[in-house]
Amino acid sequence: MIRIAHFEEYEPKFLRALQRHLYTSFGLGCEQAGCVPWPLENREPNSPVDGLLLLNTAPKIDGLPSDRTLYLTQRKLQTRKLLTGELHTSGLSQYKGMRALLSLPPHEELERLQKQIFRLAIAELGHNFGLHHCLDPRCAMYPPWTLPQASTEASFCNFCRALSERYIRR
Ligand SMILES: [Zn+2]
C-alpha cells in the first residue's frame, strides 16, 4: 500500500489524480493519509528545508509495516552538493526504505506541472521499492537532473515496470 500524506492543504482534485496515477503505475493500493503536522522547528517559511531531516522526522502514518508513505510539501528543499555543482532537489527517498518526499511547486502551478510531479513521485517511490535509475529517457526512473522536461512520460518503461512488479511482490 502507498499512502499520501501532506504538510499543507491541497486541492482534493490534485490529490485524487496523484492517488489514481500511483495506483495505476505500481498496481498497488494507494490511499490518502491526509494532512500531517510539520515536524521541524518553524523557521523562515521561505527558507529551504533539509529534505533528509524532514523525510526522517515526518510523522509516521498508521498502517502495515510494508506501507510506503509519500510526503508532500510546498517548502523548498536545500540543494544537494555534487562534484558537478549544486543540484536543485525537488524529491528525495530512502532507497529500499518506506518514505519518499516531494517538494511541490506553488498551488497555481500544480495543474500545469502535473505530469512532471507524477513522474517524480513514481521515481522516488520506485527507489523505495528498490529500483535504480534507468537509461531510457522516456522512463520515470530516468535521472531527474538530466531531464528533458517536456518529452518524458510519467510512467515506467517496460523493463522498470516488470522490475517494480517483481520487487513489490517479493
Ligand atoms: Zn525504466
How are the secondary structure elements laid out?
Layout: E1 2-6, H1 12-26, E2 30-35, H2 51-57, E3 68-73, E4 80-82, E5 85-87, E6 91-93, E7 99-103, H3 114-128, H4 158-169
Parallel strand pairs: 1-2, 1-3, 3-7
Antiparallel strand pairs: 4-5, 6-7
Bound molecules: zinc ion.
Descriptive terms for the model:
Collagenase (Catalytic Domain); globular; 170 residues; alpha/beta; 5-stranded mixed sheet; two-stranded antiparallel sheet; 29% helix; 4 helices; binds zinc ion
Question: What's the short story on this structure?
Answer:
The chain is of the alpha/beta class and 170 residues long. Helices cover 29% and strands 18% of the residues. It has helices at residues 12-26, 51-57, 114-128, 158-169, and strands spanning 2-6, 30-35, 68-73, 80-82, 85-87, 91-93, 99-103.
